[in-house]
Amino acid sequence: MTSDDKHRNLDLLQRTAGMTANQRLVVMLYALHPTDRAGAVLETAANLAELVGMSPSVFSRTRRQVVEAGWLEESDRLAHIKYYRLSPKATGENVVVALRRAT
Asked: pTM for the complete prediction?
C-alpha cells in the first residue's frame, strides 16, 4: 500500500464518521479489499461477512444501507451474485460532466 493509498483510506475513514460502526466497517472493507480493473470486489457477501465477523444477514442488510446512502454501487452481476465497488462519493472523485447546449 502506497502512502497515497493510506491517506485516501484515512480520509475515507474520517468522512464516514457519522455512520454506524458496521456501516463504516463495510465501507472500509470495500476500500481495502483487492478489486478488479473496474474497482469491484469480486467476493461473495458470505465470504466478506465471515472476514469481518458478521453474520451474512447483518452484512447484507448493512451493505444495502451503505448502497442506499451512496457509498457503494453495484458494479457487476454474475447470475444471481451482485458485486459492488466504492462509489464516487466514497472515492472522492468528481464525476460531474459539464453539459453543453444542443445546437
From this structure: 0.83
